[in-house]
């Protein structure tokens, strides 16, 4: 998957997503990340173990084959994008591995216990022959589990070592192989204990942990598939007789319609500008504009609003929403990767592949941890061997240590290797981010930049744009003194603009005048020529002359020709129902709320009073909003900016956290750290609350991952832990981190009064 970003030096910045197969731990992800970063033209590379994905930003064109070769040079394969079939097959494969391993391990462990602790009856008759064959049974079963079921562990360990790295699979592989090797030592020396059965137990427990991890990870990543499931595979394309004569499409079959014939085609065949027919009860196939028909549309899957909305000619509709009542003709405006659903799915994948600043610390620890653990394992084994050579089988000076011996040395070596696997450390951050982004997407939030998660805990001020953020962004003309001809001219001029106020004015007149030489100035207005006469529509020269309108919270747009004021258009944008609640919640979080608007002082004061905001700034141009952000930053505050328009893009980029309304401009979304897809401005408070919760869970995960190793490693080195206990503790620590991360969804759901 490839996305395009900003243009620099004639090149459109590309963001490429790759899916990597075979990664098992944080060190694996680091190896892939390192090789991708070496590729000439790659400015940034991040690999996320939790989603098996690599995210690459290119500063110049780089063939995809080159990136894939870098992944393979790291020792891993290119996987397929997430899909129902792939995820189900991965789950089934993991389940088969767990089942087969335990089918072997359970009887083998029973036999081992009987062999070690069974009475005389066990070592008599037929059982005697079984017990005598235990070394052979352990060797065969160990080989089946290690080199059959657990071959991926060995392969991963070999890849890491061949690239001069040591991942957690290296520790497990060395521990399991060492335990299995004792079988052959015991054949040569019957006095030497065999840990062959323990080797199978180590692998089985490791595979069980991996199985639970993958199951929970897949569950946390289902929001992408749920979002894409709303897309419609086919569309009913309207073809004119002329279109039909140009090609084979539509020559046979189809349905007669006024103005042409409809033909059902794959959604991939629909191009921008094509007209599709949508019947009642069908999902709208494309993002577009209604050119014929009126209806009620269920947008709940996209906006979270359960009440259907009325839509008619000229209104925009989103692919995936449900057409309830009337037949529609929709002109496609965004198709393929440019559609709303595709863009949102891409943003989710990008979010799940993102990294948080604290991740750098965890990566450094993990990279050094594995070789240190291996050294500690060797030292512990050597220590016990030296004690054995000094004291023999006599009690040691410290009574709790018991006696030394070869078995004790091997036990310490294996247990240290196994228990110190940094699985929990490697999963502490990515699992919390995946769970967090999953919970966020279900609530209509897309966290594009993981750094916002860490920044949110220090947030001190929230600057909220008025139009489209605090208000519904669907203004309507409520009063005007323009003549019908001038209103038609104004509407025709404003149809070239995407600003919410422009859309309201454009809908105020049905006529259409010939417009030329259109020039729009962000934050000011638009200038154009109609019928040879030049008009300006935008900010009034003297806002006070419209005081009565402004005191009602309305926005006044003035129409001028030269220096002559021709009249005004009063536009009212209803305040979102959840605005006051959002302001209250932000304050309770210790965040100061500031309203920023391009409207005049009197309108801003009226709106601010109605929503409960004391601090507001009016008559702001786009650069003024950025200046406002920097002023608050200069006071030592972390600043969040929320907006939806092109004029908010600079401020969104300059803020510590930029929040864009999903229905806003593409430029605003591209420059935001968090995108609100569903719901209103209350999602801003949700975003901050959730971000803080994610970071809290990350800190808890890291603490317990470190605490576990601080306690467990010394116990293993003192040979106070059996390898089975060590592997169980290691698996339990990883699972605890995963389950801890899953708490994020539950917390968020309780906070909003519903399950997530």
Compute the number of strand runs.
Answer: 28
Tally of helical runs: 27
Gross morphology: elongated
Structural class: alpha+beta
- Order of strands, main sheet, comes to 7-8-6-9-15-10-13
Give a quick rundown of the structure.
The chain has 756 residues and is of the alpha+beta class.
Structural features, described:
By secondary structure, the protein is of the alpha+beta class. The chain folds into 5 domains: 80 residues, Alpha-Beta Plaits (2-Layer Sandwich); 274 residues, no CATH class; 98 residues, Distorted Sandwich (Calcium-transporting ATPase, cytoplasmic transduction domain A), CATH 2.70.150; 121 residues, HAD superfamily/HAD-like (Rossmann fold, 3-Layer(aba) Sandwich), CATH 3.40.50; 97 residues, Calcium-transporting ATPase, cytoplasmic domain N (3-Layer(aba) Sandwich), CATH 3.40.1110. The chain is 50% helix and 20% strand. The chain has 27 helices and 28 strands. The chain has a 7-stranded antiparallel sheet. The protein has a 7-stranded mixed sheet with strand order 16-28-27-26-17-24-25, sandwiched between helices. It has a 6-stranded antiparallel sheet with strand order 18-23-22-21-20-19. Helix 6 crosses helix 7, helix 7 packs antiparallel against helix 8 and helix 7 runs antiparallel to helix 14. The longest helix has 36 residues. It is elongated and about 110 Å long. The two termini are 28 Å apart. The N terminus and C terminus are likely disordered.
Outline the fold blueprint.
Blueprint: E1 2-8, E2 11-21, H1 26-38, E3 42-48, E4 53-58, H2 64-73, E5 77-78, H3 84-117, H4 125-132, H5 134-149, H6 151-162, H7 168-188, H8 196-220, H9 222-228, E6 234-239, H10 241-246, E7 255-257, E8 260-266, E9 275-278, E10 287-292, E11 295-298, H11 300-303, E12 309-311, E13 316-317, E14 322-323, E15 328-334, H12 340-352, H13 357-391, H14 406-419, H15 423-442, E16 445-447, H16 451-455, E17 459-465, H17 466-470, E18 476-480, H18 484-494, H19 500-506, E19 515-521, E20 525-530, E21 533-538, H20 547-551, E22 555-561, E23 564-572, H21 579-588, E24 592-596, H22 601-611, E25 615-617, H23 622-634, E26 638-643, H24 649-654, E27 657-661, H25 666-670, E28 674-676, H26 682-717, H27 723-751
Parallel strand pairs: 17-24, 17-26, 24-25, 26-27, 27-28
Antiparallel strand pairs: 1-2, 2-4, 2-5, 3-4, 6-8, 6-9, 7-8, 9-15, 10-13, 10-15, 11-12, 11-14, 16-28, 18-23, 19-20, 20-21, 21-22, 22-23
Helix pairs in contact: 1-2, 3-5, 3-8, 5-6, 5-7, 5-8, 6-7, 7-8, 7-14, 8-27, 9-12, 13-14, 14-26, 14-27, 15-26, 15-27, 18-19, 21-26, 26-27
